[in-house]
Design goal:
Blueprint: H1 5-9, E1 40-46, H2 50-66, E2 70-76, H3 80-92, E3 99-102, H4 107-112, H5 120-123, H6 132-137, H7 140-145, E4 147-148, E5 151-152, E6 154-167, H8 168-174, H9 182-194, E7 198-201, H10 207-216, H11 234-249, E8 252-253, H12 262-266, E9 270-276, H13 279-286, E10 293-297, E11 307-316, H14 322-336, H15 338-348, H16 355-359, H17 361-369, H18 374-377, E12 383-384, H19 392-408, H20 413-431
Parallel strand pairs: 1-2, 1-3, 7-8, 7-9, 11-12
Antiparallel strand pairs: 3-11, 4-5, 6-9, 6-10, 6-11
């Protein structure tokens, strides 16, 4: 089994753990205003392609037309893996862009190596700061993950949650009622197996679902403040076994080389599928018209609700001059505005970043026309994010290896997660 999407994307960052120390003061930013009509150029690297890239280009155009001081030049760097590799290469050659898209979990490593400019001088001070009302309007889970060591180093951008996709027509044919808990889904396993259908499908790795169930059982895999590792606690093992047992019994399946579980779901091999809410856009394009599919928030487990928030933030590198940094913040603030976060959500399937955006009548009307996107929005109040720390990338790769071992080698969770704990504790001890 290969690394998951972000596991592969961030492999290059593991070099940071080897003691790479860069000042990242160099830049590939152009300081020549003449080519842009006197405007300051803000270079922006991202991994948005297809309909996502089209939506982002529209927002960049909106920003460039909204003022006459700055011009943002967005460049798609391929997929997320390529984007992260190019950021690392640019850091080494001191040719970083002004801003880039990345996961919040890279921030501790970037900060340790002096790549990033903190956003506090722009975000919390000055005439262009975010007001208290604006800060309160952004969903707390998004803002909390943007803060590291008491400072803001990123802003939320392309955010998604895990949701449950279900085949309504097949459910009706099988006489299955909509489950409200993971326990109910597992209970469907035996009867569905007799009919040649698996109850639920996962992506190539079930790491996010595992972490979500662990949270629902009362455990963060790594505690936010103490960085205590809980990957093999009693509660966490119970959560891991819940999924692993279904896989061994043939009640659930992972995607394998298909990578995403939507393919098995679309062909009726699984009744339910857990995937990213951002996948709704792709499902709209690829699902057979005969497929009567819908979405719902993830079911409860242990009587609790939780869904992992995923996606990307935007960071500002030290590479820019003062004018470029001011322009970068102006663009970030623009992306966080109610109008633009609604436009982004409607164009991509990512969730709005503000409560007022979700409550906006025009967005509510859009949800009525696009009901498959409602589950993600309705999940925001119980979303959580993984604990970020220096060395997180190495830890996550080890987590993916542990899940891979449970899937491909049928390693007992007790063994796989005990090994993971040893590795995680060493990573944290060596880096934090």
């Amino acid at each position: 089994m290969k690394k998951s999407f972000w596991g592969k994307a961030l492999l290059g960052i593991s070099a940071l753990a080897l003691g790479l120390v860069l000042t990242a003061c160099g830049s590939n930013n152009s300081s020549d205003k003449s080519s842009n009509g006197g405007k300051v150029t803000i270079t922006f690297w991202h991994g948005m392609t297809g309909p996502y890239g089209k939506a982002l280009n529209g927002i960049i155009k909106d920003f460039n037309n909204s003022q006459d001081k700055y011009v943002v030049k967005g460049t798609a760097q391929g997929n997320y893996a390529t984007l992260q590799q190019k950021i690392m290469a640019a850091a080494k050659s001191k040719k970083l862009p002004t801003i880039a898209q990345t996961t919040y979990t890279t921030v501790p490593d970037y900060v340790k190596n002096n790549f990033l400019a903190p956003l506090d001088p722009y975000m919390l001070k000055g005439s262009d700061k975010l007001s208290t009302a604006s800060m309160d309007d952004i969903y707390p889970a998004f803002l909390s993950s943007s803060k590291y060591q008491g400072k803001y180093y990123s802003v939320p951008f392309s955010k998604s949650v895990r949701v449950l996709f279900y085949n309504k027509k097949l459910m009706d044919q099988l006489g299955v009622k909509m489950p409200t808990s993971w326990e109910e889904i597992a209970a469907l396993g035996p009867q569905l197996k007799k009919k040649g259908i698996m109850a639920i499908g996962f992506d190539k790795s079930f790491d996010m679902e595992f972490e979500g169930l662990a949270r629902q059982a009362g455990n963060a895999l790594v505690e936010p403040d103490s960085l205590k590792v809980n990957v093999d606690s009693k509660e966490t093992l119970t959560a891991a076994h819940f999924i692993w047992d279904m896989l061994q019994k043939g009640y659930a399946k992972t995607a394998g080389e298909d990578f995403y579980g939507d393919k098995a779901f679309q062909t009726g091999k699984t009744l339910f599928y857990v995937g990213s809410s951002a996948g709704v856009t792709n499902m709209n394009q690829t699902a057979p018209k005969s497929l009567d599919w819908h979405t719902a928030p993830l079911p409860t487990y242990n009587g609790q609700k939780a869904t992992e928030l995923a996606g990307n933030d935007l960071v500002m590198f030290n590479s820019g001059n003062d004018a470029q940094k001011k322009g970068a913040w102006a663009f970030m603030k623009f992306l966080l505005s109610k109008k633009e976060t609604i436009k982004w959500a409607e164009g991509t399937g990512y969730v709005p970043l503000r409560k007022s955006a979700v409550e906006d009548p025009s967005f509510q009307d859009w949800l009525k026309k696009n009901p498959a996107n409602a589950a993600a929005v309705n999940s925001l109040d119980f979303g959580f994010q993984s604990t970020a720390f220096v060395g997180f990338t190495e830890y996550r790769n080890d987590l993916l290896d542990a899940v891979d071992s449970m899937i491909s080698k049928k390693t007992q969770p007790e063994k796989a997660l005990a090994d993971l704990k040893t590795k995680a504790e060493k990573i944290i001890k060596d880096n934090n």
